[in-house]
Amino acid sequence: MRAMIIKELRLIRKDRRSFFFLLLMPILFIAMFGTIFNSGGGDSSSISIRTIDQDQSAASQAFVKQMQGIMDVKLESASSLNDQVDKMKQGQFSAMLVIPAGFEKAMKEGSPADIQLYQDPTAQTELAPIQAILSSISSQYREQKLTDVLLAKGDSKEQAEQALASPIQIKDVATTSDHISYMDSMVPSMTVMFVFYIMITMARRFFDEKKTGLLSRIRSTRVKPLQYLVGMWVPFILTVIAQCVVLFAFGHFVYDVKLGDVAALTLIVLSLSICGTGIGLGLSFLVPGEGAAMVITQVIAMGGAMLGGLWVPSYLLPQSVQTVGHFLPQYWALHSLQNIIAHGAHLGDVAGPALILLTFGAAGLLVAFFRLPGFLRSAAN
Amino acid sequence: MIQTTARNTAESNHTSYNNDYMLEVSQLRKSYPKKQALQDVSFSLKAGTSFGFLGPNGAGKSTTMKILTGIVQADSGSVRLLGKEATKNPDAVSKYIGYVPQEITLYDKLSAYDNLEFFGEAYGVRGKMLKQRIHEVLTQTGLLDRAKEEVGTFSGGMKRRINIAAALLHRPKLLVLDEPTVGIDPQSRNHIFEMIRDLNREGVTIIYSTHYMEEVEALCDEVAIMDQGTIKAMGPLGELLENYGQKAIYVEIAGAHHLPEDPDVTAVRKEGSGYVLETENLHGVMQRLLRLASQHSWDVKQLEIVRPSLENVFLRVTGTALRD
């Protein structure tokens, strides 16, 4: 069996396709998402809006300045309104703010000063934070107006502030001691998703061995069928462990991802490795060929990622999808990893999910075990 | 001197086993869903024999070899290796038999050394002994200086040599080679022939499957002719040639456009500048030809007995040419 393990590890080390699927792709994904979503730490300064100031007054400039404190304001010339609208129709941006002439005058007269928000109705997700910011600025103007009225009636500044204070106060209570970044969630998600791509490598290796006659030849040696199975399996477990170590190390050193309790993390990584490769074993002995294995792996990896909450948090998914997700290993892997990283879970807390992952792996191994004799027979003939 | 006797146990109706035999195969049958691959194949080999399996593709040679090496299970019949039932002693099979399959079954991405290390360990050779054996077989194959290079960079002939070397690491007593020279250059073929002859001289029993007559003639002292899943004829090479080879004379006479009729000549055919006369009475026909030549002052350029060929034997035994 030792010979099988060493040989297989040497082959995996030289397999460029596996390197691409197991390491390069997830690192690229992590780096890409990290660059897009992590650079601003998720705050609103990464939100930008084009603005046309047709009023060009002190009041309009004060408004723009107030916006600039919260988001990126790109000022366009007052005469370019039609051009900008055309560009928005072409999909170059989703929202534009226009401060029409007469803004300052209306404010001084105490009548409503209109501001126009041009918006692309197909981009509601991008518009939501902009609308929230503008609403907040509008509230600030209203509060300022009310303060002025109260002060004019003879109230002190403190009395005015007290009168305007909200009866409800929202306090942030973090469920972990450390600050959790976007990448603390992204790195485990990508790791879990790409672990399952080991199944492609596994199926390819088994079918190569069968097709080239190597499996048949190995059967003429002292290597027993079960030794062959385990000897092929163990290197893939080690490969997935190495994959997880590299991805978490990348996340930790490049994006400062928290690792939490290393013992608990080790348990989940080990269970996930056994789970992914166990399912890979079963798949390799079930499908008729390498092509089918490729397709099924994509379905398992991508479908599992979608339903298991790797792309969108589970609680945002419909209830029925959440229920389905509970039957997928991806859900339990991510759930436990997030518990370790974000909620400070320890060995005892993740033992349950670890057992579920191991059960998936054992099921795959069982399928492989029962299908092995037929696979060996077909290889011999 | 090594005793080299093959016997057809089916023909001799010999059912008891003899410990003198390296291998005893009895009444092997194997069928696949659409084909009867083997029908009552029986033969026995004494240690040190170099035994050739000759037959066209699909004759059942590879199936027989896979059954001998435990890769395929026979439907019925038995294989005894050194007096022990092979199916009940799989460890003895892998210990005493080295199998060289028809395909080049090596890992292209691994070096020759790593390939040999893997197969050596798979055969149960470990540590210093394995290192020593790898060195020895690499020397035997003439590829010691290429040991660290990936097998994928090797020529077909070099791969074939490593393919054989991988089956030698555990010093097998019986080496089973299934068409080991397919698609290689003459130089590599000669190298492989020399390796096999050396191994046979060292006492290793050889089973060599091929559809090349010349390979059997060059390497084997015992031959079994297989066709359609059965052994059609078997025995020492000389005996087969004697029993089944067509006796003939080749004669070339300057200016002769036809030959006089002879009652002992069964067939005449033109070959090159002369004629091949098929006859069972070689000496009688030659004497009469020489007498006629002397009487008519013919200029006899060449007169010789044609050596019977295995090809001819195959044709007579199976009724078809080998490469059909």
Mean pLDDT of chain A: 85
Secondary structure category of chain B: alpha/beta
Please provide the count of β strands of chain A: 4
Q: SSE order of chain A in H/E notation? A: HHEHEHEHEHHHHHHHHHHH
Weakly predicted, low-confidence segments of chain A? 40-44
Count of helical stretches of chain B: 11
- DSSP helix fraction of chain B: 25-40%
Biggest sheet descriptor of chain B: 6 strands, mixed
**Could you estimate the helical fraction of the residues of chain A in percent?**
55-70%
| Mean pLDDT metric of chain B | 84
Number of domains of chain B: 2
Overall 3D shape of chain B: elongated
Helix-strand category of chain A: mainly alpha
Number of domains of chain A: 2
Assembly category: heterodimer
State the CATH class of the largest domain in chain B: Alpha Beta
Describe the structure in brief.
The complex is a heterodimer of chains A (381) and B (324). In chain A, 69% of the residues lie in helices and 5% in strands.
